[in-house]
From TrEMBL:
InterPro entries: DNA/RNA_pol_sf, Rev_trsase/Diguanyl_cyclase, RT_dom. Residues 116-312 form the Reverse transcriptase domain. This is Reverse transcriptase domain-containing protein. Signal peptide: none annotated.
Amino acid sequence: MIELYESEGNRSAAQEWTERLEKMAPNPRQWPLHLKNPTHVDLQGVLALPVAHSRTIDFLLTTYQYLHRDFYRGLRTSRTIKTTSLSMDDVRIGVEKGKFELAVELNRITEHTYRGDASFGRLPEGYHGVNSFYVLETKGRRRLITEPILNGVVEKESIPKVSYPSRLEKRQLLKHCRYMLQIDFNSYYDAIPLEDSVRNNFVFRGKDGQYYRLRTLPTGARWSVCVGQAITSTIVDIDVSQVVILSLIDNILIAAPQGSEGEFLCAVRSILTRIQQVHLETSPDRDTLLQTGDQDLLRMAEQSDVFLGEEYRYEPNEYVRKVRNSIKTVAKLRIAMRKAPYYTCRQFVSFVSLILFAAHTVNLNPASLFFLLKAYRAVYVTVCNTGGEWDAPLPHISPSVRALTAHHVCAGSERVRTHCASDTSDRRGP
């Protein structure tokens, strides 16, 4: 990241990353657990928001079933529960930040059983376990993951489908947008509360022998994506004509072409007001943005913007936004390349997926990726046929595959902007 920022002359960002690395503990276990304590969203307030399309409310009501106890009645999971890998310091932080709480009733029911240093416990009827652990982030912090055991009994086909514009469709929508403003929700899943009657479906056992339960939406639940997206979709569903509004769970992008400044500003302020009404916190801060003047907002929206791994920059001479891979995407590619040839199966397929993502941004001919896709498929087939572990070391990577990955990493790392749409002959003025 530092090298990439310095190569583009962004000394402030490079210095920020240098200071972050200097403060980073050498032992990843000592990295801070990334948890905030955001204000909980007003779920009934979201339901009361006026929307431009009735299907938005229909989708919201469908997803709200996962926030009520009736959905979980009759579901059965394993009664055995393993002690969490989280340290008690991490658990205490989770309690302080409002993510966890003591399962008082469950501890009372099981107080006659020996807990002590035993590795396993046994849950009574009406309780379901949740795997609580963390993953490391390159920012030098640990991200908490809570994965319900109920994932194994809730069929994927039963979960409401969430659809998004394709990358090509998204680029074409944004091609002529001079103004782009991105708003992110802070700790979004931690801002979506669970009713008291639902929390017993997500319990884990601490190293102190006590049982704890989640107070907010689990990050690793199959249905969390559709719940989060339904809330976001309801917030941004306003009546617009020239303004483009895109959202992906906790990311919102508001864009408009030159000549639509009035509608753009109206859309931005309308969405910020709706976010304020349901008590969600944002970055940049919603209240600060609401107090920002029109001209300052427009100047802010004219700057380069990164949305879902792609950087968009407006070219005033051509009246178009051009796209390239973000610095973070390029940094991930280079870091993954340094692991060669020592990958696990999971790491390798993730690496190939990232190469495909970056290649699509720079408009490479997908035919050149065919051989890499064959290697990608071979890993899947091997794991599925042998019943192997995804985190097992990949036994062998041929020199040709390694050379091909290196070639496409270099190509994807090129910070040259390309036109948002595939038809670059369409050059429309204001």
